[in-house]
Specification:
3 domains, transferase, carbohydrate metabolism, Rossmann fold, EC 2.4.1.1, binds ligand 26Q, ten-stranded mixed β-sheet
């Protein structure tokens, strides 16, 4: 207030209630008597938002006064999760709100149920972006996250006749109280057209676009936990300009034609692409990417010029983190802005650009490395293609100087792929145009250096780094698992662990305390009762992630079929009851993944209909996996399935969320599993399978025959035979065929080790005291996986930024 000159926002129950009523009357425009649940929800949300907005204003003032170095996070995806509960927590107004909403005739839980999650992402990469912006605010780092405000988020999944069905996700249909439109900051973005030389200049060009689109921003507030900072995520929505409405056609009665240009423009931010790895090379996707980058860069430059006038300061005041290659066209766009529009010399522009950007890679799958056909680029972004050619020419000169005569190396490293078709390799552009490149877990970063980006690591070894991913402990334990959080707070004597997650190590001292273990176990059970997926006393075995063959849901399925056979063959056996819970979406065009979903549901139905087996084994497919559902499942999990083929999962972050909540992991030596195991201890982790080296050797030896495993292993044979003989309603022939054929992800090679390891899981489960002790130790040693630590690593090693504390309002 001092600085802002505002009336104090209510902090007592009375004051909060007055604020709530003011919001109801003056902003929602309704009354207590006629307020619907939706009215009450919107009213509460706005009232809570006001408290964050006040902090936002103080944050902006502190940032403006400091003129700090800024982090700009560029991401095509954000999976922010539901906002109300988080914002109640971060503004410390949970209790006030719970009381106040009663006067409107509703409970807080009811209103939280109306809070919609903006599904503006596919999976891990989008959720990582959300965890990182949360942690940046928590660590007082001046930052803005830039993204796209898709009208339709990731599709809603339902299971119909055992198969995945998709529905559009019109997430903001009823409005979004968390969003601030900022129409004054709109930007203009060009596409298509041609370039013309600029008389008297060698390097500058004039680009005359053939289509012009407006980008309208809105932002959501991103508060820090336990600090005053509130940063923003700024999302761009495409709009037709006034000129895109053709009044003369309208007057002539051609209504559809009159708006077709505007519709075309608005299609750019219409829908999130639901593919989470394979590149389709669709022009609209490239349009989305360029739209995001052009709007964001202009906004970044506008913000820079508020406090700075000299371009030579730009790279000192700005770091732009590229979340995978999706926003990599920003490198060429910044060059274009600096050279063509601000008239800098090429060399100065290139030096600024290179020092400004950093690139995070999230994959190792070759088919996921983005490339665009040169002809698509040429048509859509003719000036950018010219710039990329120039960047490539200077770059290849540098390679030639270091490795004279090594033409094969030049061919491998070129930003332009020549065969079988000329394409722009976005990962190469991202490495060439940035100061730092990082992988997302130790193994991933090492494999990047040694395989996919090996030539680049030879040339610039110091550029390559690792920053292991992390997760928000506020969302994924405090909010998701209040019971466990309360017990931890009691055990540690305070809530300090929520912003200093290493403090969880203090739980180790309680890992042998029988009464503590009993309470720990009771909480897990209560969470299972809430989830209501199956018998709360059964082992709850969860595999929750996107469906992809490399993640190997099909391996889990073979284990389930094996258990089914064993129980049928020995109904009187002393079986450990299990509930296996799957959740996850498959890309709509990814048929092999959808086949696996069908088979899971078919096997689940067969087992449910079998009176001998169903008391011991239940398979559940939870529809429409999203952040909100994850927050319900994770606290109830006993066992976390992280069974990707080693060398394929860059990191994984669900693995971290589950371990933090006391699930034990069964996993391969892949991604962050390796670091989880190193921290929680090998004794508290169920390890199986080939390592990345063995897997690569087996695959490339040419000696692997999946069928050998089938012939050698009776239980495996029985499982696959059952699928092929139609035991599961005739479903699954494609899955079985792919396993017995090429078996790309070596599922059959790891089957026996996996099933034996699951037998070991059962043995440990029978000793509940031991299991609970292991569970506590998993939580105790998960502190490293806080996104706060991830952000500190980025800040120290890549961004070189310092925190800017925001003064309290006192
Ligand atoms: C690209 C082009 C066209 C259409 C879609 C895409 C696309 C979209 C999303 C490609 C990839 C993604 C998402 C990838 C992703 O989520 N990767 C995961 O990132 C996590 C955070 O680093 C890791 O933990 C996971 O291991 C990795 O799979």
């Amino acid at each position: 207030r001092q600085g802002l000159g505002l009336r104090r926002l209510g902090r007592t129950a009375d004051e909060f209630q007055q604020d709530l009523l003011s919001t109801l009357y003056y902003r929602r425009g309704t009354t207590v008597e006629s307020a619907s649940a939706r009215d009450a929800y919107e009213t509460l949300s706005l009232t809570v938002r006001d408290r964050l907005a006040e902090r936002r204003a103080r944050t902006a003032a502190a940032h403006f006064a400091t003129n700090p170095r800024w982090v700009y996070y560029l991401s095509a995806e954000y999976l922010l999760g539901a906002q109300l509960e988080q914002n109640l927590l971060y503004s410390g107004t949970g209790e006030l709100a719970a009381e106040a909403v009663k006067t409107l005739g509703f409970t807080l839980e009811e209103l939280e149920g109306l809070d919609i999650e903006p599904g503006l992402g596919n999976g891990g990469l989008g959720r990582l972006a959300a965890c990182l912006v949360d942690a940046m605010a928590t660590r007082d780092i001046p930052a803005v996250g830039y993204g796209i405000r898709y009208d339709f988020g990731i599709f809603k999944q339902s299971i119909s006749g055992g198969a995945q069905a998709e529905c559009p996700d019109d997430w903001a249909f009823q409005g979004n109280p968390w969003e601030f439109p900022a129409p004054d900051d709109r930007q203009t973005v060009g596409f298509y057209g041609h370039t013309e030389p600029v008389p008297g200049s060698q390097t500058r060009k004039r680009w005359i676009p053939g289509e012009v689109v407006l980008g309208e921003p809105s932002h959501m507030l991103v508060p820090g936990y336990g600090t005053e900072t509130v940063n923003i995520v700024r999302l761009w929505r495409a709009r037709g300009s006034e000129a895109s409405f053709d009044l003369s056609r309208f007057s002539a009665g051609q209504y559809a034609e009159a708006v077709q240009e505007a519709v075309r423009a608005e299609n750019i931010s219409k829908v999130l692409y639901p593919d989470d790895s394979t590149e389709l090379g669709r022009e609209l996707r490239l349009k989305q990417q360029y739209f995001l980058c052009s709007c964001s860069l202009r906004d970044i430059i506008r913000r820079f010029r508020l406090r700075n006038s000299d371009w030579s300061d730009f790279a000192d005041k700005t770091v732009i983190q590229l979340n995978d290659t999706h926003p990599t066209i920003a490198i060429a766009e910044l060059m274009r802005l600096l050279v063509d529009e601000y008239e800098l010399e090429w060399d100065q522009a290139w030096s600024i650009t290179r020092r400004t950007f950093a690139y995070t890679c999230h994959t190792l799958l070759p088919e996921a490395l983005e490339t665009w056909p040169v002809h698509v680029f040429e048509r859509l972004l003719p000036r950018h293609l010219e710039i990329i050619y120039l960047i490539n020419m200077f770059f290849l000169r540098e390679v030639e100087e270091r490795f004279p005569g090594d033409t094969d190396r030049l061919r491998r490293m070129s930003i332009i792929q020549e065969e079988p078709e000329r394409r722009v390799r976005m990962a190469h552009l991202a490495v060439v145009g940035t100061e730092a490149v990082n992988g997302v877990a130790e193994l991933h970063s090492k494999l990047l250096r040694e395989t996919v980006l090996n030539d680049f690591a030879d040339l610039w070894p110091a550029k390559f780094q690792n920053v292991t991913n992390g997760i928000s402990p506020r969302r994924f334990i405090k909010i998701a698992n209040p019971r466990l959080s309360d017990l931890i707070t009691e055990g540690l004597g305070g809530e300090g662990w929520l912003s200093d997650l290493d403090q969880l190590a203090g739980l180790e001292a309680l890992a042998d305390d029988a009464s503590f273990l009993e309470r720990w176990r009771a909480i897990k059970r209560a969470n299972k009762v809430d989830l209501a997926a199956g018998d709360p006393d059964s082992l709850t075995d969860v595999m929750i992630k996107r469906f992809h063959e490399y993640k190997r849901q099909q391996l889990k399925l073979l284990h389930i079929i094996t258990l089914y056979h064993r129980i049928r063959n020995d109904p009187g056996g002393d079986w450990v009851p299990r509930t296996v819970l799957f959740a996850g979406k498959a890309a709509p065009a990814y048929h092999a993944a959808k086949d696996i979903i069908r088979l899971i549901n078919a096997v689940g139905s067969t087992i449910a209909a079998d009176p001998v087996v169903s008391p011991y084994l239940k398979v559940v497919f939870a529809e429409n996996y999203n952040v909100t559902l994850a927050e319900r499942i994770i606290p109830a999990a006993d066992l976390s399935e992280q069974i990707s083929l080693a060398g394929k999962e860059a990191s994984g972050t669900g693995n971290m969320k589950l371990a933090l909540n006391g699930a034990l992991t069964i996993g391969t030596l892949d991604g962050a599993n390796i670091e989880i195991r190193a921290r929680v201890g090998a004794d508290n982790f169920f390890l199986f399978g080939l390592d990345a080296f063995q897997a690569a050797e087996l695959r490339y030896s040419g000696q692997y025959r999946a069928r050998d495993n089938y012939e050698r292993d009776g239980e495996l044979r029985a499982a696959i035979d059952a699928i092929q003989s139609g035991a599961f309603g005739g479903v699954g022939h494609e899955v079985a065929g792919s396993l017995l054929g090429w078996d790309e992800y070596l599922t059959l090679a790891d089957y026996r080790a996996y099933v034996d390891c699951q037998d070991h899981v059962d043995r440990v489960w029978r000793d509940q005291a031991t299991w609970s002790r292991m569970s506590v130790l998993n939580t105790a040693h998960s502190g490293f996986f806080s996104a706060d630590r991830t952000v500190s690593d980025y800040a120290a090693r890549i961004w070189r930024v310092a925190p800017v504390p925001v003064p309290r309002d006192e």
